[in-house]
Amino acid sequence: MSIKTHVNEVFIDEYAYRWRGYLVIGDFTLLLPGFIAQWFKPGDSVELELVSEPHRLDGVNLLTPHDFRLRRIWEDEVINVWPLHSRVYEHRGRRVLAREAYLEEDYVAIAELEQYHYASEKELVAIWKCPICGELTEANTQPKCRRCGATMKIQEIKGSIPPSRFLVLELLDAKPYEPRIIGYVRVDTPVPLMHRKVEAENGRIVVEREIREKVFPLNWIHPTFWPRAYKDFEILMKRYRELRVLYSPRLAKKLVADERAAMIANVDTAAARIARVVIHPDFRGDGIGVLAVRAAVEWIQERRIPEMKRKKHLVETIAQMARYNPFFERAGFIYLWDTAGGRPVLFYPLSEEARRKIEDFLSKDRYASKHGGRLYRSRIGRVQPLSGPIVLRQVSKTYRSILDLSALSPAMRDVLKAFGVEKRIIERAIIKDLDIEIRPGEIVAITGISGAGKTTLLRILIGACARLEEEKYKPSEGEVKVPNNVKLSCMLPGELEPIFGEETILEHIAFKTGDIQAALELLSIMGISDAVLYRAKYGELSTGQKERVKLTSLLAEMPNLLIVDEFAAHLDVETARRIARRIAKLARNIGLTMILSIHRAELLEELEPDKILHVGYGKVYVEERGSAPSIAPSS
Prior knowledge:
Strand order of the largest sheet: 5-6-3-2-1-4-7-8
Largest sheet: 8 strands, mixed
Distance between the termini: 83 Å
Mean pLDDT: 88
Radius of gyration: 31 Å
Number of helices: 19
Helix content: 25-40%
Strand content: 25-35%
């Protein structure tokens, strides 16, 4: 059954406004979370669809969230309100559900993720309330009540505002060791005021007031939450901030409830603001941030988030991080200006009208026309490619050793003799008569069982490129020709590795690149995007983090040839796949030639190598990409 009617009454719990609320619509009372109910007022037109019979309780026809569908009718348009938005995305072989946060466990996960948002001024990011005694406390993870020992319930995410809506990203195929919620996006109403900072031709800094309203219609942005026209606005905000510090429920009820309800009911904009994007550090740099932003944009457009009224023309964001990570721009956002405080502002047009206004501004504004809507520019330039191929002709490597039992105890000699072990000279051909050519810019993967000769082959290549004179770096026979402009970075674990001191990770990488932004880019590519790790020293890292930082250190030298033995050997499968995919993409983009020995067949799919060298028993099978395997010449 579906009926078109009006809202009769709205109730929001003063002490848990985000959680508990209800709407009285006709003869029915609808239980809804407060963050939905707060956007309605008596007289609003709605369409109510019953999916199950109401529950009769004390003479009230009660509808739980599973019993109904609710749609708002606004200016003759229908907007879905309940059930909440959810959509499944396929992302690099993973299934990710983007859905609006609703459950208490969703907000607990948001609080845990919020600790990774280092721009927050809050050391403790959430407010918790005891369901037994009402005690309030601040904490980052779910605490026990200090008074009665009960498990506390999350009350609010600090820094958010009453209109805030949250979209969480949930891994539907999460492994047992992976987090279920890997990121969230917070969407708010537009900021009330926005001024632009520019540098005039005489070098003076000029602040242009209310720049946004000069580009977009006033009624796209206003009335927003905390509108400028609100009487005694600054006084109210001062009291509100004081209240949030004191956490007095009585004061909240007395001073805030009516004012907050009036301000929220007054909101009706054609724009929304992405106020937070937080992705779990283990999933950054793999496109999850871009996915989160795109999912949020679709949510805003489809459901007209946050207030669910007018059609949206714009999504805005104010994000300092956008200078160092382009995930907003990759999601389609366009940079227009810096705020008076120096933070970049980017917009996503949801309509052709908005797009035309942005393009018009970028073409006519004397400051914006210089950057053309682009904020982020990669600082990792292309390397000078190898001037020619690396050529191995009839290369062999034989190891010779003398097996002598004379120094062993009689008992040990007897045991070995029982197995037929006698004094003798042992000669073993690890590589025999290898002919191969590695062209500039190629990615070459070397595979084979342990002890097959992968490291030996890499030593020969490193020795030729670095002109090393030790015998182990030279072939026994044959010739290795390398281009005269080769710039090698290499890693043979325990033998040739980057050297770290007491400097921080970011200092180490930035010293090599000479550019802190390029250092941040490289660290992000290698999955070191948790800002807390930037100030860590090498010795403070885990084994897997150390391996990624060593790879970053090699890349920071901007070589045109990278040789790595046991690539990604100390990383879990999913992390190893991500790193392989990212480093391969980087190599293609900058013209880097890479030769990597690997132990995992699944990495071949991510690396997409031009050649695979299968090493074993003195032979090297050369598999050209897209062709049948061939055997390198061998006697």
